[in-house]
Amino acid sequence: MLAIAPPGRDAGRVIGSNARAQAMSRTRYVIGNWKMNGTRQGAALLARAVATGVGARRAASPGVVLCPPATLLAAVAPELGAGRVALGAQDCHARPSGAFTGDVSAEMLAEAGCRYVIVGHSERRTLHGEDDAAVRAKAEAAHRAGLVAVVCVGESLAEREAGRTAEVLARQVDGSVPAGSGAGDTLVAYEPVWAIGTGRVATPAQVAEAHAGIRARLGARLSGGAGISLLYGGSVKPDNAAELLALADVDGALVGGASLDAAQFLAIVAASPG
Ligand code: 13P
């Protein structure tokens, strides 16, 4: 079973001194997942606006990553302000090459300039039938290609209402995050399915409880697991980002809809604690 932080005064609110020291050693991120949106021209403009905004920010702020659709990687890559913003993709195939019509390998993404790739997003799990083993194979492919895998986990509304959240997250973390993963090659994003694209954001207490459980599970299973950055995703907006990003076990955000608007996305970047 997933270890869950005991409810109490600290749950979801206060970062104690030990937790603060640990949290400060983990890298913070704000990642934009554009999903299946954008045209060449619009993508270049959006990426340029984000890179310009990020260029003006304070030094101790999060790593910023944009994940456009595969067809727009080439349009976005030159707009990222000489590395101020990193490039990521939304999915990859597990194999490096072969007869896999319509798929893109992690090696191809690396060659296109990506440093990150999202794997196991709930839209892939649900709409493309990807199970934990498939997600793990994709994360391993990302590692093989030298990419950082952003492994997504999250429970459905039915699972939450049935009181199965901890069990589902434990199963997904165990099944999807490859053995040997660590802070250098893996991020984990907690994205409750019921909060994605719905405007219904998880409460700080729900996020804190889930992240503490995921953190404990990673730490128990992997020697470098406790140092893996944990991102929250699901209706993150400028008006809720500061509260979520201040939570002890939240090291960043994976942003969908609000990443399609430069001002909103930059406001979320600005809300990240330094
Ligand atoms: P929204 O921010 O649109 O809810 O999407 C979250 C998400 O799925 C990011 O991967």
In short:
The protein is of the alpha/beta class. It contains 11 helices and 8 strands.
Structural description of this entry:
The chain has helices spanning 17-25, 40-55, 73-76, 106-111, 122-127, 132-144, 157-161, 165-176, 204-221, 238-245, 262-271, and strands at 29-33, 63-67, 85-89, 116-119, 148-153, 186-190, 229-233, 252-255. The longest helix is centred in the C-terminal third of the chain and has 18 residues, at 204-221. Residues 1-15 have low confidence and may be disordered. α10 (238-245) packs parallel to α11 (262-271). The chain has an eight-stranded parallel barrel with strand order 1-2-3-4-5-6-7-8, surrounded by six helices. The chain has a single domain, classed as Alpha-Beta Barrel (TIM Barrel). The protein is α/β, with parallel strands linked by helices. α3 links the parallel β2 and β3. Helix content is 39%, strand content 14%. 1,3-dihydroxyacetonephosphate is lined by residues 33, 121, 191, 196-197, 233-236, 254-258.
Summarize the SSE layout with pairings.
Blueprint: H1 17-25, E1 29-33, H2 40-55, E2 63-67, H3 73-76, E3 85-89, H4 106-111, E4 116-119, H5 122-127, H6 132-144, E5 148-153, H7 157-161, H8 165-176, E6 186-190, H9 204-221, E7 229-233, H10 238-245, E8 252-255, H11 262-271
Parallel strand pairs: 1-2, 1-8, 2-3, 3-4, 4-5, 5-6, 6-7, 7-8
Helix pairs in contact: 2-11, 6-8, 8-9, 10-11
Bound molecules: 1,3-dihydroxyacetonephosphate.
Helix tally? 11
- C-alpha Rg (nearest Å): 17 Å
Catalogue the unreliable spans.
1-15
Number of strands: 8
Quick check: average pLDDT?
91
Please give the alpha-carbon distance between the first and last residues.
33 Å
CATH topology description: TIM Barrel
- Principal-axes shape call: globular
CATH architectural category: Alpha-Beta Barrel
Order of helices and strands: HEHEHEHEHHEHHEHEHEH
Quaternary state of the chains:
single chain
